[in-house]
Amino acid sequence: MARPSTPARLAGVALISALLLAPLSGCAIFSAGSTPTATQEGKETDMGALYAAVAAVDPRIEKVDGQVYYSGAAKTIDVVVLISGDEPVSTDALTAMLVAIRDNTSDAIETATIIARDAEDDDKIVDLSPAIAGLPNDITPLWDGGLTLSRVDLDKL
Questions:
Q1: What is the count of structural domains for the chain?
Q2: Is-contact 97 57, C-beta < 8 A?
Q3: CA-CA distances (angstroms) from residue 59 to 46, 94, 147?
Q4: Would you place residue 113 in the very low, low, confident or very high pLDDT band (cuts 50, 70, 90)?
Q5: Is residue 1 part of a domain?
Q6: What is the pTM assigned to this prediction?
Q7: What digits encode the pLDDT tens for the residues 28-66?
Q8: Which of 2, 28, 57, 77 sits at a 20 to 30 Å CA gap from 98?
């Protein structure tokens, strides 16, 4: 079997890289054309209500945005919050944000990722590790700049 040419391999690598990095790209989510609803298994999710519920958790949250998409066969949601101030995000606030996401999305959402960014410099990701450390021991948080939980773990909160 012949190997693809170098330009074809480079194009493939660029496409894969773009797909893998899209969830961590704040500029893609905070665009002017954000969609206020997302269809999930025939049911519309009111993204505006989701944003309002997440924003109500902490007065330091200045903006909430997100997107619903498929990651492989799994339907997932990414939620990005712009948060002001130097104080760390508390476990209680993080838990409340996750509960707001859980309560405002359909069970068809299998994973949820939350990314906190500095409101003054949205290229800077806020360190959620102190808040993650206080989450219940029976959940499995994946942390790589954004916190990802499965629906099973969201339901435990």
A1: 1
A2: yes
A3: 21, 13, 21
A4: very high
A5: no
A6: 0.73
A7: 444 444 444 554 444 556 899 999 999 999 999 999 999
A8: 28
Please tell me the distance from the alpha carbon of residue 141 to that of residue 148, in angstroms, as a whole number: 6
Cα(90)–Cα(113) distance, integer angstroms:
17
Which CATH number do you get for residue 144?
3.30.300
Amino acid (1-letter code) at residue 6:
T
Q: Kindly give, in sequence order, each residue whose CB lies less than 8 Å from that of residue 87, ignoring residues fewer than 6 positions away.
A: 60
Residue carrying structure tokens 């450390």:
133
**Within-domain flag for 75:** yes
Q: Which residue is it, tokens 């194009």?
A: 11
C-alpha closest to that of 123 among 88, 80, 62: 80
Range of the domain at 33: 26-154
